[in-house]
## 1
Amino acid sequence: MTDQITEILNAAKTVAVVGLSSNPMRPSYGVAAYLQMNGYRIIPVNPGINGALGEKAYPDLKSVPEKIDIVNIFRRSDQVAPVVDEAISLNIPCVWMQEEVEDVVSAAKARQAGIFVLMDSCILKEHRKRHR
């Protein structure tokens, strides 16, 4: 029997990483590189960079020209709401807030819209747990 997180990770192909840094020393870069090495297409979403990990960056989710399966958020908790609102408007199936990122109100709003939400959880650690 698989759990919902395993199902999400197995079904997903494209992960938009909001707040991805082009600096290899940043956690967002390491997590995105791990996901990329494990077969996911990474889309950097950060208006402050041109690209990262060989991929073109976009200023926001609505600018991304392809289907997104997971929005992985590396932003401060107080900056999550607009990202979640965008994910809801684009009908993205999963919003994943990294460790120490939490917005209970936005999470409830996303769940109400039928989106699977994780808060304060590292996608790398969850993937590694399930795919050893």
Note: The chain has a mean pLDDT of 96.
## 2
Amino acid sequence: MVDLSSALVNFYEGDKLTNIGKDYLYIYGANNHNENNINKSSYNDRIKWVKNNYDKIINLNKDLILSAEKPFIFVSFCLIMKELDKNPDYLVNYQYF
């Protein structure tokens, strides 16, 4: 249930992501999907996982979402990524990842 309640948090304010912030967002996304226990891999491997799955993430690929360890949080991450893809200046509240 923590997964659902965490995914439904409504962020009212945010900031543009810096390059470091973007890296942490990618790490957060990979951790919440956790394919093959990627959360135990290096930061670079987790960032690479997101880049390798980028099209599936921004297109909300059903199979990718349903295979996530924390599907509600992961879909929330996917929605943020989709917005960032459309608008790189999208404001993200990153205090939670």
Note: The CA atoms of residues 26 and 51 lie 8 Å apart.
